[in-house]
Amino acid sequence: MDTKNYWQKRHSRTDISTVGFIGFGITYNFWMYKIKSIVFKSTIKIQKVFFAIPLMLTKMFFWRLKEKYIIRDFHPLVLFYFFGILMGLISIFLFVRIIYLWPIYGFVPSTSFLAWMLSIITSLQFTMFAMWFDMDYNKDLKGK
């Protein structure tokens, strides 16, 4: 479903009741009409937000870890996230080493491959346990 065309068709009609929801009244529907017309006239520049949004999400994630799980109340999930990231970086280094040594020896060195696989598995386990602890710690915020 193309949402932009859908709302443009609804905006092309003149009566205001076609914009929002019947039960919310004319004031709310008029406000929704103004907001949606502003949103569809604006455009997002992908070049600006391609790096800005992931960078902002990463900074806010680490800020939340620092504020909530280190400063306010220490929780071991910070260590799990730390070791998961550390092992992920080690696995990237080992993968580059495997790609570098493969053409030199003509085969994949088994020790490097096993170390790479062990570091990937360890990284994923640390990260998944940290996410599990994080979800369990915040389960009362979920609501019902």
Offer a few descriptive terms.
144 residues, 77% helix
Task: Please provide a written account of the structure.
The protein contains five helices and no strands. With 144 residues, it is mainly α. It starts with a helix and ends in a 7-residue tail after the last helix.
Short summary:
This protein has helices at residues 3-12, 25-41, 46-72, 77-105, 110-137.
Secondary structure topology:
Blueprint lengths: L2 H10 L12 H17 L4 H27 L4 H29 L4 H28 L7
Helix pairs in contact: 1-2, 4-5
**What count of domains describes the coordinates?**
3
Bin the strand percentage.
Answer: under 5%
**What's the helix-strand series?**
HHHHH
Query: Tally the helices: what do you get?
Result: 5
Strand count: 0
Radius of gyration: 25 Å
Structural class based on helices, strands and sheet pairing: mainly alpha
| Percent in helix | over 70%
Low-confidence stretches: none
Largest sheet: none
| Terminal Cα span | 30 Å
Q: What general outline do the C-alpha atoms trace?
A: flat
Estimate the mean pLDDT confidence: 83
